[in-house]
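Students often ask why we bother predicting the structure of a whole assembly rather than each chain alone. The short answer is interfaces. A chain on its own may look different once its partners are present, and contacts between molecules only exist in the joint model. In this exercise we take two input lines together and write out one structure for the complete complex. Read the inputs first and try to guess which parts will touch.
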Amino acid sequence: KQEVTQIPAALSVPEGENLVLNCSFTDSAIYNLQWFRQDPGKGLTSLLLIQSSQREQTSGRLNASLDKSSGRSTLYIAASQPGDSATYLCAPVGASGTYKYIFGTGTRLKVLA
Amino acid sequence: DAGVIQSPRHEVTEMGQEVTLRCKPISGHDYLFWYRQTMMRGLELLIYFNNNVPIDDSGMPEDRFSAKMPNASFSTLKIQPSEPRDSAVYFCASSSTGIGEETQYFGPGTRLLVL
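Now the answer. The structure tokens for the assembled complex follow.
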């Protein structure tokens, strides 16, 4: 059974810092992995999707890397801004036909102005 | 496009009552997913449909939960009878291709409180 852990659970940083959010998963046989953002009281917004054959994806100030064999993904946020404050969730998708997103518990990020 | 639409946004009911949550996926999307989010268990997939057909309902907690998709533009998640432990935020999401090939678009959620 896939288990997903995200570290740290919460993070508070001053504006402008570069951040690293970590995601680890127990079953490396994944189809791909996706990072989402969730604002309080809202649904999830997809940030980046990394196919299992890829090692990283970039979108603006965000960069996500994937090391499937070691069961790890990292989300880098460059030059953080107060608007980045949200909960960040990673979700690996199983390759064995289950096709389920298994979500981590998330990292609550607060960027202080 | 208006995105994934869910109704109601908030629901307060008493234990034992029937609760029906509704979802309208993005037009043209042929996959629809129902999730539940709680503080204790995080975000869990309950069931998903492809072309209106339920594909995997292994996440449905028990027989009190049922989901239907009578057509491509409408789905319901029903809880009967409801219990306090069903209190959670229920999300609906849709995508245009299979899981993992295309991102899922989430609705704003229905916040359910069962007293």
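Check your guess against this: Residues 22 and 76 of chain B are 5 Å apart (CA to CA).
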